[in-house]
Amino acid sequence: MMLLDGKKLRNEIASELKTSIDAYVSKGYVSPKVAIIQVGMNKESTLFIENKKKFGQKIGVEVVHVHLPYNIPEDELLKEIYALNDDNSVHGVIIQMPVPKHIRREVCVEAISPLKDVDGLHSENVKALWVHRSDGIVPATTRGILTLLEHNGVLIEGRNVVVVGRSSLVGKPTAMAFLNKNATVTVCHSKTPNLEFYTTPADILIAAAGVPRLIRSQHVRPGQVVVDVGITIEEVPERVAVGDVHFDEVADIVHAISPVPGGVGPMTVASLFQNLFDAYTRIIKKG
Ligand code: NAP
């Protein structure tokens, strides 16, 4: 069984990004800068932002944490986003989810300049993925999954890919990205009856349902490549991150599998900064 090691690849991507950024800075360009807006004080969000800060520091990216009060009115938040759009020293803008209920997530995402939308959620970037235009920004988790597979020599064109999950954040963009790479794609969801009927024949199985250990021995077959996107934090008997795949049952059957933690999670962070670097170079070229 081949382990699809996201941590190792993340570190390789970090050093590649650092080399590329150093080259720009040595030519006199400013360092890349990303602003992460957090509304309120969600502890998990703060932890995610800290991780992004650490990664940014390693590679020479300035990560600015814009922390706004929980009860900020939506129009004030929009003003903050517009100011970051207009700030030439900022190359990426992220709204850390979740936002409080009185804030409309879609309205805020649409307010971000598509050029700086490094999460790839703005409708312009969604459209670019939909029509297979290469100048858009692909969501980081989707990009991370593709990079992890391609780096490990997994052929995508012509393969039978099954994505379990159809969220706008993960399932749908991932299915579309595989389709753009000439895979034959099936998307399953919570109303799919007899899940194993679809998952077992897959050449590549992407599990992104958020249901711990959903994928078990009866859902897979020898020769399959399994990517586990799911992350659920279980507190008992100890605090641990659990994937959508029952790793111990599945690992002995399939050809390759990504672990949780240490698979898609680290790849998502690395891919986010690849998106930022792409945005940075595009913005610099535009002048
Ligand atoms: P989500 O918005 O809750 O979507 C889950 C999707 O899975 C939905 O489409 C749902 O179907 C489907 N689903 C739920 N139960 C199912 C079942 N029993 N069988 C088949 N499909 C089922 O979650 P998300 O944002 O896409 O995230 C999915 C998972 O990935 C979560 O664990 C999340 O924490 C993780 N994640 C990880 C990373 C990373 O970097 N590794 C990044 C993002 C997300 P319906 O549409 O019918 O409800």
Please give a structural write-up.
The structure is a single chain. This protein has 287 residues and is an alpha/beta fold. The chain folds into 2 domains: 28-113, Rossmann fold (3-Layer(aba) Sandwich), CATH 3.40.50.10860; 140-264, NAD(P)-binding Rossmann-like Domain (Rossmann fold, 3-Layer(aba) Sandwich). It is built from 10 helices and 11 strands. It has helices spanning 6-26, 43-59, 74-86, 105-111, 123-130, 140-151, 171-180, 195-199, 247-250, 264-286, and strands at 2-3, 33-39, 62-68, 92-95, 160-164, 184-188, 204-207, 225-228, 232-234, 240-242, 256-257. It has a 6-stranded parallel sheet with strand order 1-11-8-7-5-6. The protein starts with a strand and ends with a helix. NADP nicotinamide-adenine-dinucleotide phosphate is lined by residues 141, 164-167, 169-171, 188-192, 195, 208-211, 214, 229-232, 264-265, 268.
